[in-house]
Amino acid sequence: PFAIPKTRATVFIFMRTDCPISNRYIPEIRRLHETFSPGETAFFLIYLDGEQSSKVILKHLADYDLSVMALRDPGHQLVALTGVEVTPEAVVFNATSNQVYRGRIDDRFVTFGTTRSSPNQRDLQKILQEILAGEEIKPRTTQAIGCYISDLE
Known about the structure:
The chain is α/β, with parallel strands linked by helices.
């Protein structure tokens, strides 16, 4: 995923087909993908459940009308590399493959069971705008709310 030419930002969004929070974020993921791709941003959905076949993942993509590239991470190598803990959780790498962001897509989910009707902060969108504007990025992390990854290990 880091070998795409002229890419200034690479986005991994860690997903599970059976996580209701991940599925509720699909319209926002689609919007971000359409806004920032194609171009200098590459998006990847990272599916974590080693027991899910490629066929199940392709069905999930089709059911939700997602054209985002998908990768499987059944051994959790990307989970270990990035430090993600829940799905959905976003990770952004800059053009030199340095991780500059890990965390929530936005702040719509305050805690488990507590949501806003619309987000106050769009964290993933903001970091992508900063990268594409050529701003200096200080690596940062926000707390994502979602389905814990540890149950798949």
